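Complex 665.
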Amino acid sequence: TPVSPQHAAKLGFSPVAKSLADVVALPEGYRYSVLYRLGDPIATGIAEYMNNGQDAPASYAFRGGDHHDGMHYFGLGPNGKHHKNESERGLLCLNHEAITPAYLHPNGPSIVNGVRTAADEVLREFYAHGVGIIETVRAGGEWTYDRSSRFNRRIHTLTEMDLSGPAARTPYMVTKYSPDGRRTRGTVNNCASGATPWGTYLTCEENWAGYFRRITAIDNPKRSAKELIALARYGVAGNGRELWATVTPDTPDNLYGRWNAMKLGSSPDGSDDYRNAPNTYGWVVEIDPFDPHATPKKRTALGRFAHEGAWLGPVRTGAPLVWYMGCDSRNEYIYKYVSNQPWNPADANDGLAAGDKYLDDGKLYVARFDADGSGQWIELRFGVGNITPANAAYPFADDADVVLHARLAADAAGATKMDRPEWGAVNPKNGEVYMALTNTNAASRPIGKLDAANPRFYNDRKTTGQNQLGNPNGHIIRFAEAGEDAGATSFKWDVFLFGARATADAANVNISGLTDANDFSSPDGLWFSQATGVLWIETDDGAYTDVTNCMLLAAVPGAVGDGAARTVVSTDEVTTRAVGTYVGKQLGEENLRRFLVGPKECEITGVAETPDGTALFINIQHPGEDTRPDFATGTFGSHWPDGGLSRPRSATIVVTRDDGGKIGI
Ligand code: FEO
Ligand code: CA
Ligand code: CA
Ligand code: CA
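Predicted structure with MU-OXO-diiron bound:
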């Protein structure tokens, strides 16, 4: 039986052509406005953004952050509470995943011999990461955000967070900042997101490992053998991508030094110990947007990995709540979390207390995709299967060790390594789950390591003649839980769509029959409209950018099993391998069309909509990030959105229809 009455209608717009222009291109009959840019003030008394690198560092605590990413719209009722069906006023929660440092400072970051020499610049970067909450309002058909709203809030790398669930208050979490392992500071690299049935926002920590400084050759010998295995598995190694730990002198509360994962109590009193700081990142973080004073909570029961997002499964009274999650790295896994408590709608206004009930007590599973088109969810629990102290690769000690090192537990469980799980989305019509596998390369998925769920290896030549070997255009996999029960431990799956150039080999590369109206590469964001049933697909494309900027497509999907089993012949032009797989029905231009193309060097991300389906919020992330800026002449990779010689800015846009109708149909 259908979970929800929404059925996708026909797509009702003409496809947008591929484009390399520095604009947002939309179908005829649609328009967009820029709602919220990097630097825009979210409190009264904060000056307009100068966008020249001179804005006061402390002011960034009250400005739009950088690299807008995952997003959710919560309807706001006149009583200041969550009103699910409110489409005129809402709290927009959005992630600020990362930064383009070049544009934040007068002439890019000040670095001498690998050391950050301007502490104020680093402070600006601390604030430019994290999450933003803004009150958005539609008046006279135009969307704005209310600068003076009491709900406006920035959460960033300095914000105090509570830890909860199995890993909280354990020795793994002890730092100088929190000797009892109960708290940590900040969230970072918040990529995709999710929501709960009780109106809270879930922000997910993705590439957090890269922010820590840990030079393996000189790491402190106090590290145990187990710690070294875990740090290597999570990639906590290197200088730290923004070199935050190199600032001297440190502050008394170690704002810079805590990014040094080698800081193992070297002060005279041995108290500045931050060896465990990386353990306090990599989680799903719950934020109550309706309570601006609530302390965010890191929910450790959902596991620690490169968390892309957390997508809520179908919500049924009396049944467990389920969130689907991906770990976005090459050869990583797809997970789900199933609450032990059945959903009771009486909890819908309980804020973070509802989170304590449903998000701290549940089971964590990882997916195995079998060659016969079926799949299994394997529980990650201490003492079950190989997740024991006797496991040779990594001896597990307790429940906290399992959630903290979910990747190692998934290795022990024999889960299927995927081609970079990006976003997921759940079809409101039937509860089927879609996961974008954005791409991989020949080194990570050599032709000998193909499997039915990750079956392609080919040479995608750029128009410049450059070879791109492996699965550079990615695919989207989908699965249907057994018995339409999100808590089931088995499923059936197929490949919904393969990214490809329209001109690629139709038999084995352009398997989904893409044309000029809908060809794409590197699917990243996925999102089902609750109002129309349309599946929105966003791209983050390193492979196809010789032909087009990144884009948003709309699809009317079928269902798992509507295609057929077939064989894909993969080749690196020396070796050939035939891989059996299950492929969804070709959608054709009727059911898959390009809706939007973004400006230069951006990624399209962060889709959200009003409940009535008449406003679509989209994030334009990091326009112009690839071209080295020339500040003397004002030559940048993009000048979007402000034009002229301006520095580019990440921004949220709102797409509406000229006639006020639902988007996409
Ligand atoms: Fe931040 Fe996986 O994209
Ligand atoms: Ca992404
Ligand atoms: Ca991506
Ligand atoms: Ca990006």
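Confidence is low (pLDDT under 50) at residues 1-5.
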